[in-house]
Write a structure and sequence with these properties.
Length: 145
């Protein structure tokens, strides 16, 4: 990993993590997906320090994952909405949740329910070319010259 935002390197995982950030940033994206789009809602849901939440919202906005939209002029109040890049992160978020449920799933946990079928969502990451779930076939990495 490079750890330097200006030296991106060749690893797409490192590049992705540089945009998404850390646990708090991922949980902010989760809350926005759930409809908690206002600062106070996120602060209450996450139990996060105000300075940390402000930093994460700024970083996610700068990374292009969320956008700030004014919903009240007086007093001035903003809400945060997912951008296309943020919406494209949602399947990754669902996959992380499925992994967490499988390997750290003791106790009562929330679940995502498909509104049309009423069934719990069971995310899986597949290779679009073969339809095979990732992790079931050997892979190799090609490095740029």
């Amino acid at each position: 990993m490079t750890g330097d935002r200006n030296n991106l390197g060749t690893c797409p995982v490192d590049r992705g993590l540089m945009r998404v950030g850390d646990r708090w940033s991922i949980l902010v994206l989760r809350d926005i997906e759930r409809g908690l789009t206002r600062y106070d809602q996120m602060r209450t849901s996450l139990g996060i320090a105000p300075n940390i939440l402000s930093q994460r919202l700024t970083a996610l906005t700068d990374a292009g994952l969320i956008e700030k939209r004014r919903y009240s002029q007086r007093p001035p109040r903003d809400e945060y909405l997912l951008t296309e890049a943020g919406r494209n992160f949602l399947p990754i978020l669902a996959a992380i949740g499925a992994w967490g449920r499988k390997y750290n799933g003791k106790g009562a946990l929330t679940r995502q329910i498909d509104v049309e079928t009423g069934e719990p969502v069971r995310p899986v990451v597949i290779d679009a070319n073969t339809g095979a779930p990732l992790g079931t076939r050997p892979l190799r990495f090609e490095y740029p010259d």
